[in-house]
Structure formats: structure tokens, C-alpha cells
Amino acid sequence: MPVSLTLTATLAIASTISMPGARTVDSPWSMRYFDTHQAMQLDLDWIAVHAESLPTLDLVAHDGITAHLSQAGSSQVTDWHYVPVSGASTAQDVAALIHMTSETDGVFASPMLLGGTHLLPWIPTQELIVQIRAGHDLGDTPMLEEGLGGHAGMCRIDTEASNGLIVMQLAETMARNPAVEWAQPNAIWWAKQFYTPNDPQYGSQWALNNNNDMDMDAPECWDITFGDASIVVAILDDGIDQNHPDISSVPGADFTNENTGGNHTTVCDGHGSCVGGCVSATIDNNIGVTGVAPGCRVMATRIFNSIAFFGFCFGFIETTDAWIVNGIGHTVTAGARVTNSSWGGGAPSSAVSTAFNNAEAAGVIHFGAAGNDGSSTISYPASLASVNAVAAINSSGNLASFSTYGSGLFCSAPGESILTTDWTGSNGFASGDYTTIDGTSFAAPYAAGVAALVLSMDPSLTPDEVEDIMADTAMDRGSSGYDTQYGWGIANAAAAVAAVDTTDPCQGDVDGNGNVGADDILAIIAAWGSSDPDADINGDGLVGTDDILILIANWGDCP
What we know:
CATH topology of the largest domain: Rossmann fold
Number of strands: 29
């Protein structure tokens, strides 16, 4: 492709997704979100097409309105392409062009709708995602995938429609089916990675230990625990460098159909490695940095691609509802206890919201970046009740100038000038294995790391119980008590782990039958003088008189 066309197309899409002067109009088509409809904008300069082999001819509708297939840019979603449009001035113009484009053999066309807090692309594909009500079914409807992401009743259906406008109509029809709780297209959508340019002046991890004590009290926490390796934090992102020498991780997984095993792939990736290091960069290995919960592990859960459009990085990501739903479902089946989502700003999704809600109900606690636009409107998915939104503070303990805040904010955490791990080598954000970076993208995993530390102390805690502990122990900032700038305050690792009650509610129940009695005395006598951990009630390494005395003090049924 000639350089002039590359630069023209690049600048055009950059203005479309980020500049206030983009050529958009109010869309006559809305997006269904559960039982409501979300108003959308329509991009007049682009449409999206799906084709295994994209024709190179340009298609002209009425009045010279043209889809320039010869100048299409590849999506990160297989066989999808972004096609520049010229001459369109109304939604009807775009609709006519979509219908004409779809008449080409093997081509499915969709509008480029814009939604969410950042007005980012949302594109219906040929598929629907449907939540079937308990005790109902859809008869002979052919399913591509049932139990999507392990979520009961959620299925993925191929509509065989010719274009995205028809798919949106089919979603409306399906949503009115008495057997259906909700229905939506399996959309391609963009979100924003919440980072800002690196600040090379900062070379220390003030977030963990700061001279002014505006930090997370990590060293004080580490006197109690580094975290437990059985507690896994799933990083829902663009992957994690699986071979980074300074990130403690378990094997990752890829849900973008690229089979990377959780590794990065595009030139614009690397975000997930920065996020993961905030949680579990390795401690005491004589290299690099450390995470707030270095004894815990992170798991790359690759649910999106960072967009490399004509070789340029815009800081946006591209995903589908099904990728995210499957990724969230995997966190449950893989045994992760915490998830982190350092992305957002796109349109909400019934499927994605349901997946987050279901995972929370299964015992997984979620954290999300509030956003980086300095506004008081928290970005989706951090805005969900099932996701804990985290704002960013600077090293003075004040809300970072870029940080989003607002109603529903859970807490705040360090997010400005954060030294963390990077994709190794020349990839990622810096030329080495580490980078200094800003954003609520890094505040959120610090808070997620505190949750992992709390669960390390007591894995039986529910998400609500972990949230209560973190809220009660956060360092209060702003107005006294809860406020919408800092939430409950700055997440504090040391105070949170110290607040976990680890006392045995039934000391002396050696045989575990729910009662302290004669059988337990006999068990202690049998283990007398040994270091049997079951009979060593006071944990001093020796079974003896002190253990008998504790047992007698707790005689009877356990509380």
C-alpha cells in the first residue's frame, strides 16, 4: 500500500476514535443492554466487513457514496476488516452502503457504531449471544456454543444474516422470546487501555513504601505475609510475557483464537505485563522490582488484542463479547480468586456483565480501572456493581490529575509514575524489561494484589468479606469516610492482612468432628512429645501440657 494512503487512513481512524471533531451522527440503531437500549453514535467514515478473502474493488452506492475496500485495514479479529467510506452524510447513506456491500459474495458488512463513556467502536457480528431462562430451551435453534464460558444458559448462535443491521433486528426479536432472559449481538468492541506516557524521572516504587507514608504499607504487610502461591489473580488483558524473569505466574490462556498461551503478540501489546508485575513481581531474586503480593501468582487471561492499525499504536484494544465471556469463565474453572480489568470505556455488554456477575457469585472478586479521563463517570466494566472500581493517586497521596472518580468508586491506589515489569527486550513500553508508567491501569492491580493478600490469610473469605476488610482498613483521604474521589480510601496491604481473623474457632478439635472432648485428649496423648501439627494446638512445635490446657478451655461443641 502506498505510504500516502497508509498515513491518510491512519490519521482518519485516529480522528474517528479520539478527536472531538469526528464525523458522526446520532444513530437510529441502539444497542440492547439487558432490558434497556443504549443510545449510540454512527461513524460516517468507516464500516466493518467480514470476508475470508476481501475483494479489492471499491463499491459505489447512490450519489457516489463509496466503500473503499482497496484501502481496508485489518482488524485484530480474524477475517474482519475496517473499510473507509467517502460521501456518506446520513445514517441512511451508511445503511444503503452496508446492504450493497453485503450483496458481494462472501462479505458480511456492519456499521461502525460508537458507544460507552469514550464513544468507542461497537460492531455487530453474524452471531448472537443469548441467555436462556432456567427451565426453558430454544428448540432446534442451532448452537455454536452452549454454556458459553461455563455460564449456565448462555449460548452463542450463528444467525446466518447478511449484515449487522439484520443481526441487531434479530437480537430484538430474540429478546422478546419468553424463553430468553436477554439477547445481544456477539459484538466486536473497542476499549481503552488506561495508561498515559511513561515518566522516566521516577525510578523507585514509591507505591509500596513512600517517605511520606502515602503508600500501601507493603513492607509492613510482608512482615506478616508475602501472599500464598495458591491465590491466583487473573489478568484480563493482552497477555503477559510468559518468560519474564521477574513475574511470578502460572501458565496463561488465550481466548482470541491466536493460541499464544497467554503471551503477547502484536507490536502494541505489553500492557498486561506491566499490570501483572504490580501484583506479583518476584521478591528477593536480586533483579528488578517486586509486586505488592509477591508470593501470589498471576495468570495471563488474554481476551483482547492491542490495535496495531497500519503499524501504528493508538492505545486501544479490540475484543469480542465471546472472548471476554470465555476468559472470565476460565478464571472460575482455573481456580483464580481475583480478576483485574485495566481497560474500559466501551459500550456495556449484557453477556460480559452477566459473566462478571456469575464469577463473583462463584467466589471470584473483581477489580477494574476507573478510567483516565479525569471525569466523574467511571468506565465500564469498572462501573459494574460486581467489579470494584479503583482510582489512581500520586506520590503525594492526592488523586492523580488524569484519574476518573465518581459514584460507585470502591477505593484508590498508587497509579502515577509506577515502576513495574514490561514485556522483555525491545517490545512493550520501554527498551528493557521494566518501565515507569501512569494510569488507573496500575492502581487497579495494586488493589487486586491487596485482595490476594487478604485471601492468602483466609481463603474461605467471600468477595463481600474481602471488600469489607479492604474498605474498613483503607487509609482515609478526602472527606471523612466514603467519598467519590477516593472511595473508602487508599488500599492498605498491612492493615488489611492484619484485620483478617485467623484464629481457630474450635481450638482443640483435633479429630475435626465439631466437638472438643475425650477423643481429642486421646489423640493428643497418642502424639505426646511429637511435632504432629494436628495435635500441636498452640503451634509451638511440641505436643504437650499446654495443648491439653487449651483443649480443656474449649471443651464442648464447637461454636
